[in-house]
Design brief:
The protein is α+β, with helices and mostly antiparallel strands and 167 residues long. The protein is built from four helices and six strands. Strand 3 and strand 4 form a beta hairpin.
Length: 167
């Protein structure tokens, strides 16, 4: 019985070592994945603006990221377009994922961060997915993208990659 116990102990130590190594490698490489995807961060003032028109109760930002959109064949009313994907919570603590389109004039992202338009510049916000439409009072129509657009999928992928690296 002593030999069987030793073998089990060695096996357990090996499993723990492999798991620890996998965790260390995962933590070391995931942040680069987010940056490699071309994800943009979202300034807190923009996140607050998106959630400033709640349909029910106050909403709180957990994390938000952006993807720049290059409109194809559409008349461009703004210099820059972004798809913003955000995880947010409601008053009961439940988490939701909303997607909005932002059109804005003025300078583009600064240091990889998208913020609100400068004073005097114009901007437009459109709710794209069901959760953005259900929990905020931004317009639903007139956007360049739809919930299944490639830019929306990329923004949501960025959000998922970002939240997986911060948990």
């Amino acid at each position: 019985m002593g030999r069987a116990r030793t073998v089990r102990l060695r096996w357990l130590v090996a499993v723990v070592a492999v798991a620890a190594l996998a965790l260390i490698i995962g933590l070391a490489t995931r942040p680069g994945e987010v940056e490699d995807r071309g994800c943009l961060t979202v300034d807190s003032s923009l996140s607050e603006l998106l959630l400033s028109r709640p349909s029910i109760g106050p909403l709180e930002t957990f994390v938000s990221v952006a993807e720049e959109v290059a409109p194809q064949g559409a008349a461009r009313a703004y210099e820059h377009y972004y798809v913003i994907a955000m995880q947010f919570s409601t008053t009961d603590g439940s988490m939701h994922e909303g997607v909005w389109e932002l059109g804005m004039n003025g300078s583009g992202p600064r240091g990889g961060t998208v913020g609100t338009a400068a004073a005097g510049a114009s901007e437009s916000i459109i709710s794209i997915n069901r959760e953005a439409q259900s929990f905020t009072l931004w317009p639903r129509n007139g956007g360049l993208v739809n919930p299944l657009s490639e830019s929306v999928i990329r923004a949501r992928t960025c959000l998922n990659a970002f939240t997986n690296t911060t948990l």
